[in-house]
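Practice problem: Ni/Fe-hydrogenase subunit HybB-like protein
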Amino acid sequence: MSGALFGGQPAGPLIGPEETLQGIGGAVAAIPLTHPRNRRWWIAFAGAVALLGVFGFTLGYLLYAGPGVWANNNAVVWALDIASYDWWIGVASGSLLVSAVLLLLGAEWRGAVNRIAETLALLATASAGLYPIIHLGRPWFFFWNLPYPNTYNLWPQFRSPLLWDAIDIVAFLVICVSLWFIGMLPDLATLRDRAFVEAMRQSDAKARTRKLALLRAQIYGIVASGWRGSAAHWQIWVQAYRTVALLGVLLVVSVQTGASVMLAGSLMPGWHSTLLPVSFLVNAVYSGVGVTAAIVVLIRIVYGLDALVSVRHLDVLGRLLLCLGCASAYCYAAEYFDTFLNGDPEARGVLVRRMTGDHALVSWTAILGLVLPAQVLWSARARTAPLVLAAVGLLVAAGAYADHVMVLVVTLTQDFLPSSRLPYGPDPWGIATFAGSLGLFLTLLLLFLRYLPAVSIIESRRLALARAPGTEAAAREAASRATLRPEENPGPAPLWGVSATFASQSDLAAALQAVSSISPPDQVHLDGHGPVPMPRTLRALGLEGRSILPYALAGALLGGAGFYAMCVYATAYDYVFLIGGRPRLSWPSFVVPSISFAMMTGCIAIHLALLVLNRLPRLNHPAFNIPGFLRASDDRFFLSAEARGDRFDAARFERRLTSLPVEAGRPLEIRRIPR
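Answer key — C-alpha cells:
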C-alpha cells in the first residue's frame, strides 16, 4: 500500500527477514517486563512530574483567583486556554485519524505507528478534556452542561457550542479508549503469559521479587480479560477494531468541522470563511502526524527497536509529513489569495494585522512552522534521518499551536466596534497552564512506555508472516523434528477434551479440515488458538458468517436518533428559550452533537458485543490447562476439541491426527485435557 500511495524506491525492508513470532514478542514485551534504560526513564519521569506539579499549582491558583489570571478580557475571551484545547484536540484528531485510516486501508507498515498514534490520541484527549472544564469560571459545576434531571426543571442549551464541546470530548474519549484497548487486548495476553512464565521462574529460584512478579502477572491477566487467541476471538476482534476505527474517522471529521463551522458561521473577520473547516482538519492531522513521528523516533532510539521500526517506516512518515505540509501551504495560500482578491476590508485588515501587528511573531511562527520544515523532507536522506524527522515533527506541532493562537487572538482583539477593541498579551499563568498540561501528557506517556507494549506485537507478527518467508519455513522444520506424544487421560478425572499443538496456521487449518468429518458438533466443539488472526482456520471451522456490524449500526442509530429527539423535545417544547437568533427547531445545531453521540453509542455497542460474543472476561477457561498453552500468544497454534457428552471417541480423534503427513497438518504434540 505504501508504495502505491507514495511511489518512489523503498528505503529498505519494513521488517527484517530474520524476525520470528517469538522474537517479535520478546523484543516488545521486554520493555514493560524488564524496564531497560531504567535511569533515563526515571530522569524523564521526574521532569514530567515536575511539570505536572506546576499544573496542579496553577489549577489551585486558578480556582482561587478565577480565570482572570490568564489575562483574558472582555474582547479576548478566548486566548491561550481555548487555543491549548484546540491544539490538544487537534493532535488527538490527527493521531486517531492516522491510526484509523492506516488500519482501514490495510497498510502493512502500520504496526510500528498505530499503537503510538492511538496512545497519543488518548493522552491528548485527556489533556484537552480539562480545558473546557477549567475555563468555565466555576469548574465544579461542569455537570450543568449535561442533560440530567434537576430541581429547576432546566435543560442545557443544545444550540450552544459549549454543549457541543462537552459531547464531543466525551465521545472522543470513549472512542479513543475503545480503539486503544481493543488494539492492545491480544498484546496484553502476550504480556500476561510472559509475565507468568517469569513469575514461575522467580518462584522456583526463590527470588526476592517473586511476589512482585506474580502480582504483575495477575494484573496483566485481569486486564487481558481471559483472551485465548481463539479463532472466534480473532474474527470478532478484527471486525470490532476496524469498525471502531471507522467510527473514529467519522468523529474526527465531525469534531474538527463542527468546531471550525462554529467559528466560520460567525461574522467575525478572519473566521467567516468556507476554507476554515478544511484548514482546521488539515492542520489537525498534520500536527498529529508530527507528534507521532517525533515519539516513534524517540522510542526507536531509546529502546533499540530498529528491526521493528525500520528506516522504511521513517521514510513513509516523512512522506506523510511532506504531503500534509504541502496541503497546509495550499490552505494558507488560498486564504491569503482569496482574501486579498475578493475579501472585504475587515478581512484584509485581519491578515495585515497577523503579519505586521502586535502578534506578528505568533503568526509568522505558525506559517513558517507549518510550511517550511516539511520541505526539507523532499530529500530522501532527510526523511530517513531520525533526528531530522523528529525535529520536523516538533516544529510542525509548535506551528500548529501558534496557528490556533493566531486565529483566535488576532480576530478577537479588533472586531467591528472600535469601543470594544482591547489589546491582549500572554500571561505567565496561561503559559504555565499549558506547560502543566504538557506535563500531564508526558507523565502518562512515560507510564505507558514503562508498563505497556509501545509497538503492536500483533501487527508486527502479521507483517513478519507476510514479508519474512523464513518464519513459516522455520516452523515447519521444527515440526518435522518434533516427536508426537499422545497421552492418556491422567487418573480418573473426567475428560474435558483433546488438544494438539502446531507450528503454523496452515497446519492447524489442515488438521481441522481432516478431523471435522469425524467430529459431529453434538459430540465435540472444535476451536483453534494462535498468536495472530487466522482466516484459514476460520474457514476450516465454518465461522465466516458472524458479523459485529449489526450491533454497531443499531447502537449508532439508536443513540443518534435518541439524542436528536431529546434536543428537539427540550428546545422546541419543554424549555423554549431563544439564543443567538437561532430558531427553536434549529436542526443544524442538533446534528453536530447528535453525530458525536451516535459515534459514541455505536462504539460502546461494539465494545460490549466484542466481550459478549467472545464470552469475555473469563479468567479460568479449561483451555488454560493445556500444557504449553501459554505459547498460543507467542509462536504456537493449538487445536482444542472439547467433548460434549460421553460419545466423543478421543482415541479415534488422536489416531486421525497422528495419521496426517508432516507437511499437511501433523501436530507437534497431542494431549488429553482433564476438566
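Discussion: Residues 161-204 form the longest helix (44 residues). Students who identified this feature from the C-alpha cells alone can consider the problem solved.
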